[in-house]
């Protein structure tokens, strides 16, 4: 595993951007890894918030990893809301009905997850709130009683060279909306995301693959 490498990469990117050390939080994306692998990861490297992108996989892992702090980073349908009970932060809210369904479930659970609004990145894909709709969406989600902490964006798959621009645009939008949390950056682009102002990076592949050989 190359957790020390990723942590060093985060610190280096913070420093290069002139940002205070420790400002950027690492969210460990555990999708596709077994509870045993995740347990081993925690024992070796310490405690990080863990993130899953599929409801059933989250539901299956929660009871196997007591005490873990869970984030959710995937798309979810109405019938999957019930799997999100133990989640503290949802990065991927994109529809008004999701906020309404979560607020309703939160009454039953006696606690509510905080949320980030996922921003559409211009790619030919369907996920995310279009930038022009963000101010109204923010009002509507807040009206349900949920707490909106910030924005999340993914670099466009089909144009990785656009990553920096997408990250900078999203940072500016969060600032204009008065939102402090910025979830952006994955294994391949977290340094650029940190340079643009990310406060949370969501890293999976790089954490769970062996460290690269240095000669
Ligand atoms: C899988 C995933 C990640 C992590 O991606 P890696 O390239 O494995 O670091 C981050 N965010 C979301 C939404 C994901 O689905």
UniProtKB/TrEMBL annotation:
InterPro entries: Ala_racemase_N (IPR001608), PLP-binding_barrel (IPR029066), PyrdxlP_homeostasis (IPR011078). It comes from the Bacteria. CDD domains: PLPDE_III_YBL036c_like. Residues 24-208 form the Alanine racemase N-terminal domain. The keyword Metal-binding does not apply. It holds the Pfam family Ala_racemase_N. Keywords: Pyridoxal phosphate. The keyword Hydrolase does not apply. PANTHER family: PROLINE SYNTHETASE CO-TRANSCRIBED BACTERIAL HOMOLOG PROTEIN (PTHR10146), PYRIDOXAL PHOSPHATE HOMEOSTASIS PROTEIN (PTHR10146:SF14). Belongs to the pyridoxal phosphate-binding protein YggS/PROSC family. This is YggS family pyridoxal phosphate-dependent enzyme.
